[in-house]
Write a structure and sequence with these properties.
CATH architecture of the largest domain: 3-Layer(aba) Sandwich
Shape: globular
Number of domains: 2
Largest sheet: 7 strands, parallel
Order of helices and strands: HEHEEHHHEHEHEHEHEHEHEHEHEHEHH
Number of helices: 16
Helix content: 25-40%
Strand content: 15-25%
Strand order of the largest sheet: 3-2-1-4-5-6-7
Distance between the termini: 30 Å
Radius of gyration: 22 Å
């Protein structure tokens, strides 16, 4: 305790003696290359462009040998090779859970759903829900805090950013904020207490109340709260912290990658592409039924890439026996963009129950390709309002069979002729979005 108090006093006295052009900023993010998936890309790109804009990012993350990363993408490491990265140890149960349920250390890590069938899964769900709060990655909090403390003192850092999920990241920021005179920015990539899949967890009333208390404490102690989408999510958070400073910073697209990568179009097939996570919580069956009922005699190819279970892949193949269904597996980011750009139609499915509070990061890359998009979700949601601005994009309810068929008719008949325009698309580039973030940090 005495040592800690002296460190805090020392940091406050020494602040300001060492400066970068705009200042140092600590970014606490669990997901970082070589982790794959969309969750890693937001702060990977922010770090890259913040450095170009005169900031000095210090990224604190988890050692990939000990982290619970569902997928890996080593190709992303080259993007952040000039960023200072500190990797910590961690204590968490998810790799063991994955091994016991699937025989692999990544395959069974839950993403967007928690499979509750069987006694073991139900017991694991109960333990995860009530003994690991706010989430099963809370075991890295103390390790990350110690590294954060060292960097603040050594480099006179004025800014700390925490991003979640996992929302346990914010507990590190909360502790730092209490111990140091520092600006703390909280980034909600997805909701915390109100996220749709929390309904699948076996929380006790005590655990639910603790989650709510922690979320409210984080929201009210931060200097700035970021969300990827406005609308309902922002309103929910504002009710919990009415005096807080909120800002919407969406996900974006890598303009250099989009311009560099070329996709080869099929002359034989009308090519439909889906990329990303796909679970039972996505309304994909509505599209399958429409394709089977109305287009079974056509030369259609459906390519699927991302974190998709073999069970769902087999279901889709069995449901569409007359179509060419290709399981591309998990692709690195560049190959994913290459696949996207080979499509005649891009499809997307919003989490059932999460349409109003979340928007997939891949949507911006979909829009950047100017390829028509069919998205299944709530048209009245914030995501629906964004997509409605595009010229050849439809956001439709899963039950809108006729509208889905009419849009499919249109894009199939006009294969290769439709350009999906989005107004001021360049403002959604990763670099442009980081400029907004840089300005917000400078004002703190």
């Amino acid at each position: 305790m005495v040592r800690h108090a002296l460190l805090c006093l020392y940091s406050r006295r020494k602040m300001g003696k060492k400066f970068f052009k705009k200042g140092g900023v600590i970014i606490l993010t669990y997901y970082w290359p070589p982790s794959g998936g969309s969750g890693v890309q937001r702060w990977m790109y922010f770090s890259k462009y913040l450095k170009e804009m005169g900031w000095e990012p210090f990224v604190i993350t988890v050692d990939e040998k000990k982290a619970s990363y569902p997928v890996l993408d080593t190709s992303l490491e080259k993007i952040v090779k000039n960023i200072k990265v500190i990797k910590t140890s961690t204590n968490e149960p998810l790799k063991l859970f994955s091994f016991l349920t699937t025989g692999g250390f990544r395959k069974g890590i839950p993403q967007g759903e928690f499979k509750g069938r069987g006694l073991f899964n139900k017991l694991s769900n109960y333990i995860r829900s009530n003994f690991f709060i706010p989430d099963a990655r809370v075991g890295w909090v103390n390790y990350a805090y110690r590294e954060c403390e060292k960097i603040i003192i050594k480099n006179n850092i004025r800014h700390v950013i925490t991003t979640g999920p996992p929302h346990s990241s914010h507990l590190i920021g909360l502790k730092i904020k209490k111990d140091f005179k520092i600006n703390w920015t909280v980034d909600f990539r997805d909701p915390w207490v109100n996220i749709f899949y929390n309904k699948q967890f076996l929380f006790t009333e005590k655990s639910i109340n603790k989650q709510k208390r922690l979320e409210k404490e984080v929201l009210n102690n931060a200097d700035l709260v970021l969300t990827t989408i406005g609308g309902d999510l922002k309103k929910q958070l504002q009710l919990k912290a009415p005096n807080q400073n909120f800002a919407v910073i969406p996900n974006g697209y890598d303009s250099d990658l989009i311009n560099k990568v070329k996709g080869k179009k099929s002359k034989k097939y009308f090519h439909i592409v889906y990329t990303g996570l796909l679970t039972r919580n996505h309304p994909y069956v509505s599209l399958l039924k429409n394709l089977k009922q109305n287009f079974s005699t056509m030369n259609l190819k459906l390519s699927l890439a991302g974190n998709i279970s073999q069970e769902i892949i087999n279901e889709i193949k069995n449901f569409l026996p007359s179509f060419k269904v290709k399981d591309c597996g998990y692709l690195n980011h560049e190959d994913t963009v290459r696949l996207i750009k080979s499509a005649d139609l891009l499809v997307n499915f919003f989490f059932i129950g999460g349409e109003k509070e979340m928007i997939s990061g891949k949507i911006m890359e979909y829009l950047a390709t100017e390829i028509p998009i069919l998205s299944i979700g709530d048209p009245k949601s914030e995501a629906g309002k964004i997509l409605s601005k595009a010229s050849e994009t439809k956001m439709l309810l899963w039950s809108s069979d006729k509208e889905i068929r009419l849009f499919l008719d249109k894009v199939i008949e006009n294969k290769g002729k439709l350009t999906n325009r989005f107004p001021n698309l360049d403002k959604l580039s990763r670099k442009k979005i980081t400029e907004k973030l840089s300005n917000l940090l400078a004002k703190l």
